[in-house]
């Protein structure tokens, strides 16, 4: 598949700045021996609304850099600096689109309490101060209709604080009250409108190489509202001119949103003009903190603009520096050098393959692309691995490979049919024995039956075998510490209550000894019918049963992953097989078995196979003769000696292997291969068959 690339995206010339859809120089797929594709800088979207393709939004971003920044806007073919932001100064930025003005008040408590109410809703607050008046907004919204609906919601949410006010829709239509040589001159004019109860703002606008101040009056959502504002504002000044909706500018406001306990003013720049973009950059390459990205810090420059009525924030930085962070976030820096190199080449190839996938960016900062968490994940070993493989990518038949990877393939990578449902000969099932390295340092757990009939798990370092056995040959165990937790899963989960506790001297029957639930070997559930139906809702293309009494994997792919699952004998139709992960409460992988905890299968003397539920009674022959056994609470053992308890209530337990979709390179598998002495090229060519590793 041929791809188009930009050699260095968004060079900040007029030509590059206008290329909002990343339409740079064209790169064609090379022949097998041609140079590999490359990229000088990469654009990473942190906030962006592309509808169903991708959506991560915020009403404003808060930036703070260790160095001074310039904020520049393109005007008349020239990139014009509008603002110089001092080092370590925090600034807030948003876009001038649809919003709801919730209330005005001179009382801080009223404003802050109303803002706190909105914080827990989808209508996020922005709180400004104008003189002594606090102005509370909610938003932003992509359409006027969405804002109208939000106004109705905020009226209910903030009802106790409105004092007779009605939330109203605002937008990006303004009247100009003229241009001025200084902010002080503009402020005098602005204040004359504010004193008359009319919203007005000082605005920095580009003016052919020298920015100037204007006063914009009103913030209308439509032309009718703007006309009404013009009539009212005309009482203050008749010299008002309607602004074009695409007029570029930076609206200056004072923000008090960040600390709702005590008002602390922060400079807020609202970017006006639907086609406007603002670039923030420093000179030394120092990191910039983005509060809305969990206070992470990032290298490079930032671009703010508007897409589908929402703010977008793009971080542009040298491609190598992006890879330092990405590889550090994807795998531990303590891994062997060859595993880190393999990840570096895979990450580079994957990023290049994306092209202009996200319109204003190559990639996003989440795992939908690759995890990108800024400077905190830059480590010496990672930097060395990225630098050692600089420019190296994976090609097949002369074309760049989309080197998808997952955390752990459970011993066997997935075939493309098991994930997407269609065949791609690049992604075939291959053995990945190194995956088991993920549990090398983990403790084992005893799966035990308590005297109460409850089953659970106790970690081996808290337990010891007594040497005694049941009549069926199952061992007993006890614990070594007081109040030892018996866990629901073979895993410490601080947010999940234990199913019981044991003290030294207490005994329990050992059903089996298992590995701690991890990315290679895991356990989930048991889930009730109701829990599964809730999780399945909206994820199947056919109707669901009223309740689930049986759940079976009826078809598997080349690696053993589930292709078809039936509930009560009916196929659960999903769009693609990997969707079974989310359909069943977010399972780690689709390489799993399903165990019905409330039933078991019996092989009779005549060879007939039947399923017995916990409520049924069956006749058995034991060492003491004939007898009847009721399912609930019964310990059953299969031909391999594995024992389990039949639960009183019906549920479904999932036991599986692997973490992620399983396609392409397994990160843990790569580590295992590196530990065994394989180099990064051998690792990559094991997982991506019939490929070459080449360099630009």
Number of strands: 46
Poorly predicted sequence stretches spanning 5 or more consecutive residues: 1-34, 602-606
Name the helicity range: 10-25%
SSE class? alpha+beta
Radius of gyration: 31 Å
User: Total helix count?
Assistant: 13
Mean pLDDT over all positions: 89
User: Into which percentage range does the β-strand content fall?
Assistant: 25-35%
Distance between the termini: 19 Å
Largest beta-sheet details = 14 strands, mixed
Any idea what the shape is? Answer: globular
Overview of the molecule:
With 696 residues, this protein is an alpha+beta fold. Among the domains are: 1-46 and 318-404 and 664-696, no CATH class; 443-515, no CATH class; 522-657, no CATH class. The protein contains 13 helices and 46 strands. The strands form 11 sheets. Strands 3, 6, 7, 8, 9, 10, 11, 12, 13, 14, 15, 16, 18 and 19 form a 14-stranded mixed beta sheet that branches. The longest helix has 17 residues, at 337-353. It is globular and about 100 Å long.
Write the topology of this structure:
Layout: H1 14-18, E1 41-49, E2 55-56, E3 61-65, E4 69-75, E5 78-85, E6 91-95, E7 98-105, H2 108-119, E8 125-130, E9 133-141, H3 144-157, E10 168-170, E11 173-180, H4 183-194, E12 200-205, E13 212-220, H5 223-233, E14 241-242, E15 249-255, E16 266-272, E17 277-281, E18 288-290, E19 296-298, E20 301-307, E21 310-318, H6 319-330, H7 337-353, E22 363-364, H8 380-388, E23 392-396, E24 399-400, E25 405-406, H9 416-419, E26 444-449, E27 455-459, E28 463-469, E29 475-479, E30 484-486, E31 500-502, E32 508-515, E33 521-527, H10 529-536, E34 551-556, E35 562-567, E36 570-571, H11 580-583, E37 592-596, E38 599-603, E39 609-613, E40 617-622, E41 625-630, E42 635-637, E43 643-645, E44 652-657, E45 665-666, H12 667-675, H13 680-687, E46 692-695
Parallel strand pairs: 1-22, 6-16, 25-45
Antiparallel strand pairs: 1-2, 1-21, 3-6, 3-18, 4-5, 4-17, 7-9, 7-10, 8-9, 8-15, 11-13, 11-14, 12-13, 12-15, 15-16, 17-20, 18-19, 20-21, 23-24, 23-46, 26-27, 26-32, 28-29, 29-32, 30-31, 33-44, 34-35, 35-36, 37-44, 38-39, 40-41, 42-43
